[in-house]
Design brief:
The chain has 802 residues and is mainly β. It has four helices and 59 strands. It has a domain of 397 residues: YVTN repeat-like/Quinoprotein amine dehydrogenase (Methylamine Dehydrogenase, Chain H).
C-alpha cells in the first residue's frame, strides 16, 4: 500500500496553539507536542531570538577544545582537486571540511533538530545534500528528528522536505543519475508506536513522498542499499523495536518482523530476502551493504538474540553489573553471493564482545568497493576482515589532532559510520562516539578532528574557586573539568579540559572547601575524591620518576561511599543525583529508589525515605543484559532557607517533599496534572515556600515544555511554561540576586523570565540550536554557564544582561 505525503503540509501542521494551551491553569491538561509542532515552535524561537533585548550579548564557547561528540555518518567527494568531507553528528548538526578534514565549519546548526541520522550527497551534483534528522542508534539520550532537509547550494541554505514524524532516519539513498529520485529508510519513533516507519520514496526532489514499504507501527527500515549496476534494485533491512523506559530496544517476545527485503522495480513491490538468516524471532538490528565490485555479493551484520552461552563466573556487563542470565549470540556476519536469494553465516569466531551487550547501537558494515572479500564492521571497535567476513581484527591505530598534530591516543570506540575511498581503499573516513577520524594508510595512523562538532555534556557544576572550575560528565568521555578563564578582552577562553572525578554519566557535588568532589561511574556507585590528597599522590609519583597513571587506573584520593541496604536491592539511575547540604558541608544526600543521607561525607549512611517510586515490578527487568534501572530518584534539592526541607522527583514522574529531613513525607504528584520524568526540582533561594519543577516528555515522544511553580511549598502548582515555544525543559534556575528572574535551559536554547515566569525571552546571541542540558548562575565570577548536549560548554556575562 502506498501513501503519498506532501512535504508542504506535513511541515505546516499547526501546534503552537497547543503549547500555548498550557497557560497558567493548574487544572489544564497539557497536550502532547509532536515533531511538526517543534518545527512551528522553532520558527517562533527564531523570531524571539531576533527580538531579544539581550541578542547582542554573546554566548562564549568555553570548550573543551580536545573533545568532540558522537558522529553518525560521513560523506566524501572530490571536485576540482578539492576533497570535501561532510559529517553528521548525533546532536551537533552537520559539519563541512574543504581541506580533507583539517578545518571545519558548521553548515547545519540553527535548525529545529540538530540530531542527525544520515546524510547523502547527490552523485551527479555535490551541491545537492540531503540530511535526515534524528539519529537511529537510539541511545537513551538520543534526540528525535523532525524529518528531512535538502540543500542545493552545498549547505549554505536548507529547505525542510517533510517526513517530520519519522523521528529517526537511518539511511538516504539518491539515484545515481536522477537526483530527484531519493529513498529514505526510517526506523520511526524511539519510544512509541507510529506508522511513519519503513521506506519512503520521492521522484520530484522531495515535494511529495510515497510510503513504498510499511510493515507495522513498530517495524522500521534500519538500512538501505542500492545495486550499483541497477538503481531499481534495492535491499532494506527491517528492525522491529521500541525503547522502554526500563529497557534498551531489544527483541521482545512476539517480535518476528525483522529481516531483509528486496525490490527489483524501484520499490513498487518487495519480497522477503531473509533465507539463511537467524529465525525471525531472534533478529535484532541488521546492517547491510553491497560489494560494488561484485553486485550480487552482500553482507549482513546481524544482532542475533539466539541463546549463546552461559555467563562466566563473576562476568559483568560494560557498566560493571553482574550478568546472571545466558548471553545472546549477538554480533554475527552473513554473506550472500546470489543477490540475497540465500544467506550463509561466514563469521566463525565468538563475536559476543564485538558489540558488548548493546548491539542495537551499532548494526553497520561496509564492503571495500574494490574487493568483495574485505569488509568492515562497526561495533565497540572498527573491525576489518580480509577473508570474506570469517575473521576480524580491530583497525585502531594511534591518532593525532588534525590542527595541532598532538597525540590524542588511539581511535575512539563505538563506531557508527565509514566511507572507503574507491580510488584508494587505504583511505578510510570514520565516525564514532569520539567524533571524526581519517586515515590514509589503512588504519596504521589516524587524524582526529577535535575542532568539529562539540562535546555532549549531561550537566555542569561550578566550584567556588576564582576563576571557577567547571565540572561536567560527557557522553563516552567520562568526566572533565575546565577553568572558566577570561582573556585580556574579558571574554571566556575556549580551552582543553582535563580529567575529573566521575564517569560519563554522573552528577558532581562539590564541597564548599573545593577540595572534595562527589561523583559516580554508573548507576549510583558513588565516590568521594579528595583533590588535595590526589594531587599529593600524583606529585609523589612524579618525584619518584614514575609515569602518571591513566585516569581510569588512578585511585589516589578516591574513597568509595556507595550506600547499602540490607532489606532491598538498590536501584539508581544512569545519573543518580547527589547533593551537598547548603547548611552543612559534611551532610550529603544521594538518590536511589530511596533517599539516603550521610552526616559525615559518605562514611556512613541512613535511609530517610520509603520507596518514592511506583515500584512496579513489570517495569523492572532485573539482570537482563539490556535492562535499565527505572523507577529511581532523578531530581533532588534542599532548601537554602530551611534545613531539612527536601523535594525529590523520580523518573516515573512522582514528586515528594519533607520538612523534617525525612521523618514525614508528603506526595505532591497529583498536584501537577502531568506524569513525566522530573528533569529538575529547584527550591527558591529567596523564599522558603517557593519551588520550581520541570519535566521532560522525551521518553514519551512528547516535546512540550513543562515548567511548574509553587509558592505554597507544593500545596498547589501553576504552569509557567507559557511563552516557551517548544522543546523539553531540562533545567530551571533562579537568579540569586533577583527572585523574579528565572533561567530555563531547553532542547532549543536558553530563556530568561524577568517576571517570575509569566513571560519568557531568548537569552543572549550566537548560541547554536542545541539541547541545553544544565545551567548554573555564578555571581562570584559574574557568569551563567551552560552545558550543551552536542556543542560543549558556553558562558555569558551576567553584568551585560540588562
Amino acid at each position: 500500500m502506498f501513501r503519498r505525503i506532501s512535504a508542504l503540509t506535513t511541515a505546516a501542521i499547526a501546534a503552537l496553539a497547543v503549547i500555548a494551551s498550557h497557560g497558567t491553569n493548574t487544572s489544564a491538561q497539557a497536550t502532547r507536542v509532536d515533531a511538526s509542532a517543534v518545527i512551528e515552535g522553532y520558527q517562533t524561537y527564531t523570531k524571539m531570538r531576533e527580538a531579544s533585548p539581550t541578542r547582542d550579548v554573546p554566548w562564549m564557547y568555553a570548550g573543551p577544545t580536545n573533545v568532540s561528540g558522537r558522529g553518525t555518518d560521513v560523506e566524501v567527494f572530490d571536485r576540482n582537486g578539492v576533497r570535501t568531507v561532510i559529517v553528521g553528528y548525533a546532536t551537533s548538526g552537520v559539519w563541512r571540511s574543504d581541506d580533507d578534514g583539517r578545518t571545519w565549519r558548521a553548515i547545519f546548526e540553527h535548525m529545529p533538530s540538530t540530531s542527525i541520522g544520515d546524510i547523502a550527497v547527490a552523485p551527479t551534483n555535490p551541491d545537492i545534500i540531503w540530511v535526515g534528522t534524528g539519529e537511529a542508534n537510539l541511545f537513551r539520550a538520543s534526540l528525535a528528528g523532525v524529518g528531512i532537509y535538502k540543500s542545493t547550494d552545498g549547505g549554505a541554505t536548507w529547505q525542510h522536505m517533510g517526513l517530520p514524524e519519522t523521528h529517526t532516519i537511518a539511511r538516504i539513498v539518491i539515484h545515481p543519475t536522477n537526483p530527484d529520485i531519493v529513498y529514505v529508510a526510517a526506523t520511526g519513533h524511539g519510544w512509541t508506536d507510529n506508522p511513519e516507519r519503513g521506506v519512503f520514496k520521492t521522484t520530484d526532489g522531495g515535494r511529495t513522498w510515497e510510503h513504498i514499504y510499511y510493515k507495522s507501527d513498530r517495524t522500521g527500515a534500519s538500512d538501505l542499499v542500492m545495486d550499483p549496476t541497477n538503481p531499481d534494485v534495492l535491499y532494506a533491512s527491517l528492525w522491529q523495536r521500541i525503547r522502554r523506559k526500563w529497557s534498551d530496544p531489544r527483541v521482545e517476545p512476539g517480535y518476528d518482523e525483522g529481516g531483509v527485503i528486496k525490490t527489483t522495480d524501484g520499490g513498487k513491490t518487495w519480497t522477503d530476502a531473509s533465507a539463511g538468516l537467524p529465525a525471525p524471532q531472534f533478529r535484532g538490528r541488521i546492517g547491510i551493504d553491497v560489494a560494488r565490485s561484485s553486485p550480487n555479493t552482500l553482507y549482513a551484520f546481524v544482532d542475533n538474540y539466539e541463546t549463546g552461552r552461559e555467563p562466566q563466573p563473576n562476568e559483568r556487563d560494560a557498566y560493571g553489573r553482574p550478568i546472571e542470565n545466558a548471553r545472546i549470540k549477538a554480533a554475527e556476519v552473513y554473506r550472500t553471493d546470489d543477490g540475497a536469494a540465500t544467506w550463509r553465516k561466514v563469521s566463525v569466531a565468538d563475536m559476543i564482545n564485538h558489540s558488548g551487550t548493546y548491539g542495537w547501537v551499532f548494526g553497520q558494515l561496509r564492503v571495500d568497493p574494490t574487493n568483495p572479500d574485505v569488509v568492515y564492521t562497526m561495533g565497540l571497535a572498527l573491525n576489518r576482515s580480509t577473508d570474506g567476513g570469517q575473521t576480524f581484527a580491530a583497525v585502531n591505530g594511534p591518532a593525532a589532532d588534525s590542527v595541532t598534530g598532538e597525540d590524542t591516543g588511539r581511535v575512539h570506540g563505538d563506531h557508527h559510520g565509514l566511507w572507503i575511498d574507491p580510488a584508494d581503499p587505504r583511505k578510510l573516513y570514520n565516525v564514532n562516539d569520539g567524533g571524526f577520524y581519517r586515515t590514509h594508510d589503512g588504519g596504521a595512523t589516524w587524524i582526529f578532528a577535535a575542532s568539529a562538532a562539540g562535546a555532549q555534556f549531561y550537566n555542569i557544576m561550578l566550584d567556588r574557586s576564582s576563576p571557577p572550575w567547571a565540572y561536567g560528565s560527557i557522553q563516552d568521555h567520562g568526566s572533565r573539568r575546565g577553568r572558566l578563564t577570561r582573556g585580556a578582552d574579558g571574554r571566556i577562553q575556549a580551552v582543553a579540559w582535563e580529567d575529573a572525578p566521575g564517569g560519563e554519566g554522573t552528577h558532581h557535588a562539590i564541597d564548599p572547601s573545593n577540595n572534595v568532589v562527589y561523583s559516580h561511574g554508573f548507576y549510583g556507585n558513588f565516590t568521594r575524591t579528595d583533590l588535595e590528597a590526589q594531587a599529593k599522590a600524583r606529585a609523589a609519583r612524579a618525584a619518584a620518576g614514575e609515569p602518571p597513571l591513566p585516569s581510569w587506573r588512578d585511585r589516589s584520593g578516591i574513597t568509595g561511599i556507595e550506600p547499602t541496604d540490607p532489606d532491598a536491592e538498590l536501584r539508581a539511575q544512569w545519573m543518580a543525583p547527589i547533593i551537598v547540604s547548603p547548611h552543612d558541608g559534611s551532610v550529603i544526600y544521594a538518590g536511589y529508589q530511596f533517599l539516603f543521607r550521610s552526616p559525615d561525607r559518605g562514611d556512613s549512611w541512613s535511609r530517610i525515605s520509603p520507596d518514592l517510586t511506583d515500584n512496579n515490578p513489570e517495569e523492572m527487568l532485573r539482570r537482563h543484559s539490556s535492562a535499565i534501572p527505572y523507577q529511581t530518584i532523578v531530581a533532588l534539592t534542599e532548601s537554602t532557607k530551611k534545613a531539612g526541607l527536601l523535594y525529590v522527583g523520580t523518573d516515573d514522574g512522582r514528586i515528594h517533599s519533607t520538612i523534617d529531613t525525612g521523618k514525614e513525607w508528603v506526595e505532591l504528584t497529583s498536584r501537577i496534572p502531568v506524569r513525566k520524568w522530573i528533569s529538575r526540582i529547584v527550591a527558591s533561594e529567596h523564599d522558603e515556600a517557593t519551588v520550581y519543577i520541570t519535566q521532560q516528555g522525551r521518553s514519551d515522544d512528547d516535546f512540550a515544555p513543562y515548567v511548574w511553580k509553587s509558592t505554597d511549598a507544593g500545596k498547589t502548582f501553576t504552569s509557567i511554561s507559557g511563552g516557551l515555544p517548544a522543546g523539553a525543559v531540562n533545567v530551571i534556575r533562579e537568579d540569586p540576586r533577583d527572585r523574579n528572574t528565572l533561567y530555563a535551559g531547553t532542547d532549543m536554547g536558553v530563556y530568561r523570565s524577568r517576571d517570575g515566569g509569566t513571560s519568557w525571552e531568548v537569552l543572549g546571541g550566537g548560541l547554536p540550536s542545541v539541547q541545553v542540558s544544565d545551567l548554573q548562575v555564578d555571581t562570584r565570577s559574574g557568569l551563567i554557564a551552560i552545558a550543551t548536549y552536542g556543542r560543549g560548554v558556553w558562558a555569558i556575562d551576567l553584568e551585560a544582561l540588562k
